[in-house]
Amino acid sequence: MKLSVGPLLYYWERPEVFAFYRALASAPVESVYLGEVVCSKRRALKQADWAAIASELAAAGKEVIFSTLALMEAESELAALGRIVAGNVTIEANDMAAVQLAGGRPFVAGPHLNVYNGQTLRLLGALGARRWVAPLELDTAALAELLAERPDGMECEVFAYGRMPLAFSARCFSARVRRRNKDDCSFVCGEDRDGLTVYTREHEPLFALNGVQAQSAQVRNLIDCVAELDAVGVQVLRISPHSHAAVPFAEVIAAFAQAVRGQRTAQCPASALPGGYCSGPMLEARR
Amino acid sequence: MAERGAIELVCPAGSLPALHAAVDNGADAVYLGFRDGLNARNFPGLNFSADDARAGIEYAHRRGARVFIALNVYPRPSRWAAATAAVDAAADVGADALILADAGLLGYAAERHPEVALHLSVQGSASNWRALQFYRERFGIRRAVLPRVLSVTQVQRVIERSGVQIEVFGFGSLCIMVEGRCALSAHVTGESPNTHGVCSPAHAVRWQERPSGRQARLNGVLIDEFAPGEAAGYPTLCKGRFEALGSVMHALEEPTSLNVLDILPQLLAAGVSAIKVEGRQRSPAYVAQVTRALRAALDECLRDPAGYRPPAAHAAALERLTEGRSHTLGAYSRPWQ
What we know:
The complex is a heterodimer.
Chain A: E1 2-5, H1 14-24, E2 31-34, H2 47-59, E3 63-67, H3 75-86, E4 91-93, H4 96-102, E5 107-109, H5 118-126, E6 129-133, H6 140-147, E7 155-169, H7 173-176, E8 196-199, E9 205-210, E10 213-221, H8 226-232, E11 236-239, H9 249-260, E12 277-278, H10 283-286
Parallel strand pairs in A: 1-2, 1-11, 2-3, 3-4, 4-5, 5-6, 6-7, 7-11, 10-12
Antiparallel strand pairs in A: 7-10, 8-9, 9-10
Chain B: E1 8-12, H1 16-24, E2 29-33, H2 50-62, E3 66-71, H3 80-92, E4 97-100, H4 103-112, E5 117-120, H5 129-139, E6 143-145, H6 152-162, E7 165-173, E8 177-182, H7 184-189, H8 193-196, E9 205-210, E10 213-218, E11 221-226, E12 242-244, E13 247-249, E14 257-259, H9 264-270, E15 274-277, H10 284-303, H11 312-320, E16 327-328
Parallel strand pairs in B: 1-2, 1-15, 2-3, 3-4, 4-5, 5-6, 6-7, 7-15, 14-16
Antiparallel strand pairs in B: 7-14, 9-10, 10-11, 12-13
Helix pairs in contact in B: 1-2, 1-10, 3-4, 5-6, 6-9, 10-11
């Protein structure tokens, strides 16, 4: 099994982003996903910055993949997608617009493409997908069914660590809870390094707001399921970036690296985020 | 004056009486689902057998209305055979179009039933013309239902370049997330629109009376608490009251309904082909009232777009049918975003 670091879902400041990826160069992961998936207004890093980070990671032996925006609405967003695709890089397609533009070349079918059955998987495989990231909603049983039907050479990646990206909206929630609207957001999502936790009125952590994205408050942590996922044929485990305030990220990677080498007792350091860890696919499994 | 039929009114039916109500009150088309858990309104006691669907289609066709059949969940491998059987059954009963979301199922339908028109469901999450180009080129879709995430200007851009008819939501419950990409319900209940055709399913709802008020829970999670005397709404996850930044608020959205009555001329000018009414879970009486009001408003708008004003009596009738007695333009209006 291999490890990947998924795209940075939060809006961090430039120095923090550069430092994060510099540290990854020497981390025991095979793939690193770069780029902005959540909001096209976030432009602290230019495409040239991402290209520079990509060069450093590639020089360090990492497979670099550019993740594309999940919710594409504006012409400017399609134009930006066109520039990414023209850059002759491998992309993770998170919308069919990206499949349409990049089809025919190898790509990764991202978690937001809704691949739930073998027919859809084979269709994307015929268009160039060589890896796909399973939807969060697939439990291990459904995943096993699907893996039995996958085309030859199609790798399966599973979101194994991090607050789960559950939904996207036209509305910016980070702005809304601060009584702003999206056109006047002042990039307030940048204040929440790991998303803004939303609690029930009984103070149970439920969701985390991250711009136009809603996440789980709980951090999914599948480290105890590594052997089971390996057994059904999952080849890549995705670790989603979190800040140092949330968790010592290098130690999370180290723990997963031990787990994929067969150390069944490997454990992640505690998460400081409200909501803690959930081991099952969903909150349901936690109860 | 634009022709009637220049813009189609597409109304929901969860049962034969609802279908009759829609057709009798001026729907140009009715959409429905089978009783098989493979469509986005998988509610107990709702939906059609194949025989009911055939009878409904005959009723609609005799009165000049069309019928679309929705099969818009994403079937996992163990449900694949049931899903393809449902596609075959929908073609067999004579549906005028199939509303599908899953790319694999679209491929199956395009290959096996090339004579049946395909519509991309809102659950297909296509929010731009490039994605629609994908579905048009691969499967020959004729129409797409847009997720409720675009401003009117963006809807117009999509129409200009997509090469397919565009259907937009006009009235009913408001999904605030991109349809097909929302797993909030899965997170809390294990069931979602994508996998089970349900959001915040009724079997997971518990009401509890407390001295502080009435609590609405979903799988044990407190979604809202209503003070004595306060109107209590269904605990849809994204309409709950939660705590964020130290305040209790509707952190995602208030309980409110979508209503485009005020912007019909803009939608007409943008070139939309159809206005869709949400609510296959609603009663025949509801369907009749909403269809009647939107029919009157659309006819008025088609007769004189420049001088159009929402017909007051119909606007008031619709307002009484909204969630929380309030309505919104949702993402059609930039400030909402």
